[in-house]
């Protein structure tokens, strides 16, 4: 029902474009970092390719004119109410739809399933007196976004000041296509019509509008399906100047251009994010490799230190045991001699172990710093941090502190073990005969003490090294990433961003296909 006012060509392309636009908009909504870039406005523009705003004073015949323009015939339900008094106290928008009505403030939206509403919307404004007072801002917004403004005058009265104030505002400030409708021509004489046309042209010339488009219409004749209603000329003008195939093609191309602009913007944004994350990922992978290799290197070096210290300590304990047993075989004052030997043993072993630990750790620190320098010279690291990064020097300074703390803790633990050495073994002076008698018992106690000492040392070395390596890895991660978990989480977004980029590239290809199709 109804008479189409704009071209119905390119329906396939419209459907494809609508699907693309909705999917693209949904993708942006699901990914808040993407730029919306007025895409909601593009959606609204696409849903109604063309909009016509109708203005005029109360009782100028706007409602009857619009009903007739949309093809409503005698006996059919009016879309716009017709009556003797003001019928339009609100702004009324009519769109194609299922027949529902929505009211929001001073705006009423009516949905009608009419062929004449395909691809368009009609916006009917209150009378011009009301426009200039109550609805000026709302009406201006609609006027600014319109494709065509239809100014309706009663053929017998075109002299209202508020009408011409608005006409002048539209012509001078909005730069919009305007046509003038002299309605209800069936109620005016030919002389009145000619006078109205002449006056309208004169007033338009005064505001620098040359050759105004004027149409004489009779809604009564059109609704009754009689000739010479003037509506076919209005429809022809709308179709040829606003809603033709070419105009529709241009409109679709404009929308495609706006979508492409948004896609290019987000494509560039995603490329930047992907590039940044790929740099981060390469840095992350190199850090992980460095930490892994570093753990392996340190583990080997520290295990070597442990073996060296353990063998040395075992050797010194064995020597001490031999000395003590020899005292029991040859000396009377065993207690004093043994106590003196143990004191000497502890001092010598403590000094030697400290020197060995210091020497070995000093070597490891030097090697560790060379490894750090080598890491920061890697291209992937330079891409992320730049050359001569302050982090390099900071990390090497941290290495000194990490190992100093480790060395101090290890020496304290070993000295604690040394301090406890042989405290559970009692040495007493005995006669020579008694000493020989208890020699086996002393040897057994010494063996137990040595075994206990070795277990304590081995356990201390193992736990200290394990704790240090784990702690060192965490500290290095902290130095290299600031927030390791957040950095890792950010990198995990890379594949998602690449997937989004793939979808955006596909939308761009689809746009090219649609544009090519409507250009044929």
Automatic annotation (TrEMBL):
It holds the Pfam family MMR_HSR1. This is G domain-containing protein. Coiled coil: none annotated. GO terms for molecular function: GTP binding. It comes from the Bacteria. It comes from Petrotoga sibirica DSM 13575. Residues 52-182 form the G domain.
């Amino acid at each position: 029902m109804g008479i189409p006012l704009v071209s119905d060509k390119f329906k396939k392309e419209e459907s494809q474009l609508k699907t693309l636009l909705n999917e693209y908009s949904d993708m942006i909504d699901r990914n808040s970092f993407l730029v919306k870039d007025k895409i909601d406005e593009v959606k609204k523009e696409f849903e109604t390719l063309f909009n016509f705003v109708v203005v005029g004073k109360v009782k100028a015949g706007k409602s009857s004119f619009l009903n007739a323009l949309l093809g409503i015939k005698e006996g059919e339900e009016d879309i716009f109410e017709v009556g003797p008094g003001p019928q339009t106290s609100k702004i009324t928008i009519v769109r194609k739809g299922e027949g529902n009505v929505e009211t929001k403030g001073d705006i009423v939206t009516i949905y009608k399933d009419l062929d004449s509403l395909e691809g368009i919307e009609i916006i009917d404004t209150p009378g011009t007196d009301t426009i200039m007072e109550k609805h000026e801002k709302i009406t201006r917004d609609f006027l600014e976004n319109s494709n065509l403004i239809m100014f309706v005058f009663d053929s017998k009265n075109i002299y209202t000041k508020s009408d011409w104030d608005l006409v002048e505002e539209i012509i001078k400030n909005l730069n919009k296509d305007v046509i003038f409708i002299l309605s209800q021509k069936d109620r005016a004489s030919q002389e009145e019509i000619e006078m109205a046309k002449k006056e309208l042209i004169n007033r338009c010339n005064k505001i620098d509008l040359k050759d105004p488009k004027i149409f004489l219409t009779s809604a009564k004749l059109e609704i009754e399906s009689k000739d010479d209603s003037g509506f076919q000329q209005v429809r022809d003008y709308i179709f040829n100047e606003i809603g033709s195939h070419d105009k529709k093609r241009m409109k679709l191309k404009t929308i495609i251009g706006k979508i492409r602009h948004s896609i290019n913007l987000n494509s560039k944004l995603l490329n930047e994010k992907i590039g940044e994350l790929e740099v981060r990922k390469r840095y992350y992978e190199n850090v992980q490799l460095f930490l892994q290799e570093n753990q392996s290197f340190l583990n080997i070096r520290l295990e070597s230190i442990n073996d060296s210290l353990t063998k040395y300590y075992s050797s010194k304990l064995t020597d001490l045991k031999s000395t003590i047993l020899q005292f029991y075989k040859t000396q009377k004052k065993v207690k004093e001699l043994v106590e003196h030997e143990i004191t000497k043993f502890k001092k010598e072993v403590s000094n030697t172990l400290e020197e060995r630990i210091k020497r070995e750790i000093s070597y490891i620190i030097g090697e560790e710093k060379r490894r750090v320098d080598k890491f920061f010279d890697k291209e992937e690291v330079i891409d992320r941090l730049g050359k001569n990064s302050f982090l390099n020097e900071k990390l090497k300074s941290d290495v000194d502190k990490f190992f100093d703390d480790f060395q101090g803790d290890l020496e304290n633990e070993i000295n604690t073990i040394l301090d406890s050495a042989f405290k559970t073994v009692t040495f007493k002076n005995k006669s020579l005969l008694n000493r020989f008698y208890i020699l086996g018992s002393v040897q057994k106690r010494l063996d137990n003490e040595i075994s206990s000492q070795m277990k304590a040392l081995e356990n201390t070395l193992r736990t200290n090294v394990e704790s240090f390596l784990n702690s060192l890895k965490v500290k290095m991660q902290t130095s290299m990433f600031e927030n390791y978990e957040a950095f890792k989480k950010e990198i995990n977004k890379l594949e998602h961003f690449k997937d989004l980029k793939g979808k955006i590239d596909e939308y761009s290809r689809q746009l090219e296909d649609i544009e090519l199709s409507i250009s044929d």
